[in-house]
Amino acid sequence: ATCGHGCKYGKCMGPNKCKCFPGFTGKTCNQDLNECGLKPRPCEHRCMNTHGSYKCYCLNGYMLMPDGRCASSRTCAMVNCQYGCEEVKGEVQCLCPSGGLQLGPNGRTCIDIDECSSGKALCSYNRRCINTFGSYYCKCQLGYELKHVSGHYDCVDVNECVTNTHTCNLHAECLNTEGSFKCKCKQGYRGTGFDCA
């Protein structure tokens, strides 16, 4: 089976037919499925969509059960957690709905972990890390764009000279480089390439 357009988060099952991994959708399986919008709703109280999955959490005063339901809890109400809580060995602990969030100093509210600056993010050399609340994603470095090449997606150098996105002087030649470009003044002109006289 060949899928000319590729299956980003899925498997090629037939001529241009993708079978998406759980949590993804679209013709090329390149879109995250928002499980929180599904009917019936996967969570009883609150739902947080994540990349390829989702997390359930409860309103204040309720405790998250293993099956995703929320049970009323006097102890939870007393602790006053931002995103519900769980009881571990008779001790009440507040929960955060994502691995990219951590309990704040007060032990009740959740604060974002900046995976990009903490070094927890795993991005390939040609991608840069962008922090989001509760997570992060890898974006192509400046001067590169995401393209479908030989069966998979990759960050490919943008040829600024061809796309005409360079800032070379009218009397300069544009020379493409990996991730960037250079400007050289034409014969009979002198300057930086951005200014030629």
From TrEMBL:
<keyword id="KW-0217">Developmental protein</keyword>
<dbReference type="InterPro" id="IPR052235">
    <property type="entry name" value="Nephronectin_domain"/>
</dbReference>
<dbReference type="GO" id="GO:0005509">
    <property type="term" value="F:calcium ion binding"/>
</dbReference>
<keyword id="KW-0677">Repeat</keyword>
<dbReference type="GO" id="GO:0007155">
    <property type="term" value="P:cell adhesion"/>
</dbReference>
<keyword id="KW-0130">Cell adhesion</keyword>
<keyword id="KW-0245">EGF-like domain</keyword>
<feature type="domain" description="EGF-like">
    <location>
        <begin position="32"/>
        <end position="71"/>
    </location>
</feature>
<dbReference type="InterPro" id="IPR049883">
    <property type="entry name" value="NOTCH1_EGF-like"/>
</dbReference>
<dbReference type="InterPro" id="IPR000152">
    <property type="entry name" value="EGF-type_Asp/Asn_hydroxyl_site"/>
</dbReference>
<keyword id="KW-0732">Signal</keyword>
<dbReference type="InterPro" id="IPR000742">
    <property type="entry name" value="EGF"/>
</dbReference>
<keyword id="KW-1015">Disulfide bond</keyword>
<dbReference type="InterPro" id="IPR009030">
    <property type="entry name" value="Growth_fac_rcpt_cys_sf"/>
</dbReference>
<dbReference type="InterPro" id="IPR001881">
    <property type="entry name" value="EGF-like_Ca-bd_dom"/>
</dbReference>
<dbReference type="GO" id="GO:0030154">
    <property type="term" value="P:cell differentiation"/>
</dbReference>
<dbReference type="InterPro" id="IPR018097">
    <property type="entry name" value="EGF_Ca-bd_CS"/>
</dbReference>
<dbReference type="Pfam" id="PF07645">
    <property type="entry name" value="EGF_CA"/>
</dbReference>
<keyword id="KW-0272">Extracellular matrix</keyword>
<keyword id="KW-0221">Differentiation</keyword>
<keyword id="KW-0964">Secreted</keyword>
<feature type="domain" description="EGF-like">
    <location>
        <begin position="112"/>
        <end position="150"/>
    </location>
</feature>
<comment type="similarity">
    <text>Belongs to the nephronectin family.</text>
</comment>
<feature type="domain" description="EGF-like">
    <location>
        <begin position="157"/>
        <end position="195"/>
    </location>
</feature>
<keyword id="KW-0106">Calcium</keyword>
<protein>
    <submittedName>
        <fullName>EGFL6 protein</fullName>
    </submittedName>
</protein>
